[in-house]
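Data card: per-record layout.
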Amino acid sequence: MSNIRNVTRTFGAISSWVENEETFTVQRNSAGLPTSIQSQHGKWIEEVCTFSYDQANKLIGMSGNIESELFYSLVEEAGGTSSASNSKTILVTASRNLLPSDDGNILKCTTSVTLTAVADTLPTHFGCAIIPNGTASIASSGGTNLNGATATLSRAAASNQLIMIVYNGSANDYLVTGS
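The structure for this 179-residue chain is written out next.
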């Protein structure tokens, strides 16, 4: 269980907090949207997540990993969507399609898998977290866009402890974190 404390706000928006002895700092653009979140333990930087926007300040991408209960709130503030309440962990033992029942849950992979986002099958505002084991690949099918393209995105567990796939505001358009 997390221990969140010392939450500070600037103009009503979260600017920093301490959670489980890590200090998290949020940088924002001139529109007040989060551009990066950095966690630091002592003098060492632990994790960094960056948000990218188009000229109209529409969220177009995220990269990096942050493990924090406040992360979901910042994703929604940035313009993505995510469901964290009442989530459950679902074991994924083989490659499969993402399902409407995955929405708001954590998919824990027991091996390297490919999870496919099939167009017109996921609910509006779909979002889930993925814990990879080996490599987790997120594939698009039927015109689904992942980070703006119809492609397969692979994320290695060694550099991505947690992957998020979140709705990006229009049908069949999703953001996938990590690199």
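Known properties of this structure: The mean pLDDT is 84. Residues 1-66 form one domain.

See the next section for split statistics.
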